[in-house]
Amino acid sequence: MVARLDQVSKYYGSGESATCALRSVSLEIEEGEFVALVGPSGCGKSSLLHLLAGIDRPTQGSVVVFGQSLAELEDRKLTEMRLGKIGIVFQFFNLLPTLTAVENVELPGLLRGIDPKEARRRAIALLEEVGLGHRSGHRPEQMSGGEMQRVAVARALLLEPGMVLADEPTGNLDSEASRVVIDLFRDLGKRHGATLVLATHSPEVAAASSRIIRMRDGRVLEEAPGKSWDS
Ligand SMILES: Nc1ncnc2c1ncn2[C@@H]1O[C@H](COP(=O)(O)OP(=O)(O)OP(=O)(O)O)[C@@H](O)[C@H]1O
Ligand SMILES: [Mg+2]
Question: Residue 188 domain-assigned?
Fold first, then answer.
């Protein structure tokens, strides 16, 4: 098992103004799954991803990722674990504007203390894998949205994480670019053996997953198999 949430609740703020984002959510994510979190705006998808990523901590309940209880890890250890085992793709890419594509992709390797030559080699290989070998010297502003998103996917995979989390990775893309990114997630997930969890409003993305988790008002409503993981 890659991750397990047990009776997790998340409140933002406290007292009368507190917002409840997750209400007693329990779920397990197995190795190799491609999980799509779906549900209306505000239902708690991003909050759930943040807890899985260790970016945030639950108000109640336990989050265990790769056998580690996140509540017991101090902040520094949490950051270390995230950098090694979890790749994150955000909706707005979060690429550093002054760095080229290849520099953005190799950055997690440099932060991790990998030999810079090796980090560069991996970054170039990944950019080629996502079809952007010819854009490695471009800065984000010189790329299209779909290209930036693919750079962000490549970056998330640099340290060969066991789990990749993505928050609306196709939210800003047209349907053609979305398809490319979805196919990429599926292929790379299989090829690199990574478990994928992503939040999405797109029925096409959900249909590409192996399991759909439907949420509403901070609760998990139902879990259904996705359609075409093995196709
Ligand atoms: N930092 C925060 N402070 C206060 N409330 C927050 C915070 N982040 C989220 N919330 C609230 O928690 C609830 C869940 O938000 P969340 O971002 O998880 O929803 P979501 O499903 O990702 O929505 P969307 O599809 O719009 O991205 C919402 O009611 C939101 O207003
Ligand atoms: Mg969200």
Answer: yes
Residue 100 CB contacts under 8 Å (≥ 6 apart), including other chains = 136, 137, 138, 139
Q: How confident is the model at residue 230 (pLDDT cuts 50, 70, 90)?
A: very low
Q: Is the pTM of this model over 0.85?
A: yes
Asked if residue 29 belongs to a domain, the reply is yes
Cα 174 to Cα 100: distance, rounded to the nearest angstrom: 24
Tell me whether residue 24 is in a domain.
yes
Report d(CA 172, CA 54) in Å as an integer.
25
As residues whose CB is below 5 A from the ion ligand 2, the structure lists: 46
Which residue has its alpha carbon closest to ligand 1 atom 27?
41
Interval between CA 158 and ligand 1 midpoint (Å): 29
Instruction: Give me the number of domains the chain comprises.
Output: 1
The residue whose C-alpha atom lies closest to atom 2 belonging to ligand 1 is 12
Establish whether residue 92 lines the binding site of ligand 1, counting it when its CB lies within 6 angstroms of any ligand atom: no
Q: Is the CB of 40 under 6 A from ligand 1?
A: no
- Give residue-wise pLDDT tens across range 19-66: 999 999 999 999 999 999 999 999 999 999 999 998 899 999 999 999
The position carrying tokens 């894998």 is 129
Structure tokens at 31: 């190795």
CATH number at residue 173: 3.40.50.300
Instruction: Give residue 68's domain range.
Output: 3-225
Q: Is residue 19 within 6 Å of ligand 1 at its C-beta?
A: yes
The 10 Å Cβ neighbour count of residue 118 is 11
Asked whether residue 230 is domain-assigned, the answer is no
Q: How far apart are the CA of 119 and the centre of ligand 2, in A?
A: 31
d(CA 12, ligand 1 centre) in Å: 9
